[in-house]
Amino acid sequence: MPYTRDGEGRLYYEVRGAGPPVVLLHGFGEDGRALGPLVRALAGHYRVLVPDLPGYGRSTPQPRTFPLDFYRQDALRLLAWLAVLGLDRVHLGGFSDGAEVALWMAILDPPRIRSLLAWGVAGALDVAALPEITAIGRLVDAPPLAWRDWRAALCRTYGREGAHLLTTRWAATLQAIIAAGGEISLARVGEIRCPTLLINGAADSMNPPALAQRLAARIPQADLIILPDTGHAVHEERPDWFQATALAWLARQPALPPTK
Description:
About 40% of the residues lie in helices and about 20% in strands. It has helices at about 35-45, 70-85, 95-110, 130-135, 150-180, 210-220, 235, 240-250; strands spanning about 5, 10-15, 20-25, 45-50, 90-95, 115-120, 195-200, 220-225.
């Protein structure tokens, strides 16, 4: 059970497979285990590193806080983690909140990121996301029927009070981001220098196609796939397609030159 420690606490991570390093970042409230099927698919070809993001799963501090720039702050902490591990060139993938963190990592340290695969992401939020954000903020006290299993999983992981703090704090910060204009990283994604593949579902209410298209247009080497009849968690709704697409795309990325 490897951990690294820093001034903020500890970061838990797992490693599977061997080969060029691929880092995968999970979504809000989850931990690295949520990406298990994708990890197993990639681990036959790559060394896959999967951290629990700060304050989630087995990483600390808990309960975590969500300042307005928490995506950027999480990115800085993960870049420091990569530096501790001696990983100066990695492929990077992220889902949802993990994808927003991944965008910031590619902005803040372009030489370290060989390629970027991000799904369920837009680099910004708009008012259309407010109903879903508000519902997540009320998840523990008033879960919609479709989300009761998710609520139960959060309460098992963090306890009821921890799950309540996690969801209400996150929702309040995202509401504040929208009130301030919705900016997460969109103004700076033009600084990303690696090949980038964005994948979103056409029915993703938090990251609708228009926002995904705007994000892709601002990243110099970005391609965008929007899947019809698919929602936010593309890797769960279309697992076979997603795993095959990720493997094929990674295989097309240039190999690193041999070390001297």
